[in-house]
Amino acid sequence: xxxxxxxxxxSRETRSLPKSKPIKSASARCRPGVLDPxxxxxxxxxxxxxxxxxxxxxxxxxxxARIRMYxxxxxxxxxxxxxxxxxxxxxxLAFHVIDSLMPYVMSDRGKIPALAKAFTPDSEVLDLGSGxxxxxxxxxxASRAHFTLCESRRKRASFLAxxxxxxxxxxxxxMGDRATPRTxxxxxxxxxxxxxxxxxxxxxxxxxxxxxxGIAMLYASSRQAAEMAESQAAGLQLVTDxxxxxxxxxxxxxxxxxxxxxx
Length: 263
Description:
By secondary structure, the chain is of the alpha/beta class. It has a single domain (12-262), classed as Rossmann fold, CATH 3.40.50.150. Helices cover 37% and strands 22% of the residues. The protein has eight helices and seven strands, in the order ααααβαβαββαβαββ. It has helices spanning 26-29, 37-55, 63-77, 90-109, 136-142, 154-166, 199-209, 222-230; strands at 124-128, 146-150, 172-175, 188-193, 210-221, 236-248, 251-262. A seven-stranded mixed sheet has the order 3-2-1-4-5-7-6. Helix 2 packs across helix 3 (63-77).
């Protein structure tokens, strides 16, 4: 039986978000030795907005305001709670946001047919090991699907719950439980993780949580993707491993999404 959720669903209509503040220069975004959460949040939103524009992706009007607030909260709490390695680096935070968005980008373009209905209002999405909220919070901010974020570390689960409320996200639940095959009912259309650990553990939990025909999706490096594509998982059939390239620290980084379908 699934355990009780840490938080109840939060309605996005009950809270308005402040508008993004313009950034005058790169030096205003990342002054060495100076932590300015508002400037960092605005810079993250600006960088993400530029990349989304380049990708010609249509997102909800509130998305960039949410990402700005998300960047502010990561800058404030990131180091204190060990949420990310570089919480004051707007470029690095933006990389994680953009990487998290890639399944939405590919589904919008029709590049991965298996994700065609993954982010629609009727879809139930489970994010395992949500940590700082990549990809769960980002995908929830971009789509109308119902999201459940599972994070066993209590402080991080609390951060996710508070951040979801601050972002005004709708239909999102945070579970402060350890993910095992017995934790969830088989009701999800999509199960995802960006915290790559043991593929066998991920497959076991995803298989238990997915509805028949549901999709298990794992974010990976190109090397990890090649290994995952060759792995065998009982009850799961490999659908695709699609790669994409992002820029990080001035270099091109090859990433991939590996998908399996529950048979």
